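Internal tracking record. Fields below are filled automatically when a chain is submitted to the structure queue. Please do not edit lines marked as system-generated. If the sequence contains nonstandard residues, flag them in the REMARKS field before resubmitting.
Queue: standard
Priority: normal
Entity type: single polypeptide chain
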Amino acid sequence: MAIGPLRTSDIKSRVLHLAQTSVYQIKLSPPDEVNRHLKRNGFDYQQDGEDIELLCSNAVLPGTSLNTHQVLGDYTGVMERMAYRRVYDSTVDFTFYVDHDYKVIEFFDSWFDFISAQGEGQYLNDQDAVKNAAAYRVNYPKSYKTNMYIVKFEKDVSNDRKVFEDADTYQLTYILVNAFPTNIISTPISYEGSNVLRYTVSCAFDRYVLNKRQIEEIES
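SYSTEM-GENERATED OUTPUT FOLLOWS
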C-alpha cells in the first residue's frame, strides 16, 4: 500500500476531533433501602439527587490490568508473557462542589450512617449517639450496594435534552458493579482566601462494564 502526504483537512477530520475531559455525567443510584433511610432523615434523592450528580467536579474513568505468567525457554532467547486473570481497579474518587444547603455532605454522610446502621433505631437521640459506649452493627451488603454510572459524551449532545435522555448521542457508559461509598476524605476549611468548598468521596466496586448502549436500555 502506497503512503502519500496527507492534506491538512484530512488530518483535522481524522485526528483533531478529540474527546474532552470536561464533558461527562455521573449517576449514583442509591438502592431502595438507602433511599428510604435518606427520606426518613429529610433527604429526597428523587428530588435532589440529580443536582448533586451535576455538582461532581472531578471523576475518574476506572482502569483495569491483566495478571500474567512469564514463560522462559519455549523459544530460544524468548521470554513470553501470558495472561491468566483480569484485575479491576477497586475504587474510584468523586469530587463534588458543596452546595449552599450542604446536601452533598448530607447525602453521603447519611449513606454511611445506613451502612454502619447508625440512625436505624439503635440510637434514640443525639445523646445516645455521642456516648463513649455507643456501638452499632453494619447492614448487609445487598442493602447498600448499587450500580453507579459514569457517562462520557461530547459537546455535540443535543442542547434541548439531558444526556441520559438523548438517544442520538454516542456515549460510553462505565457501569460500576456493586458500588458503595467507603471513604469520605477530610476537607480543610480556612479563613485565608475563600474558595468553593469541595468534598471528595471514594467508592468501592467489584468491577466495571463498559457499555455503548443508551442509558434507557440499562437497568438502574
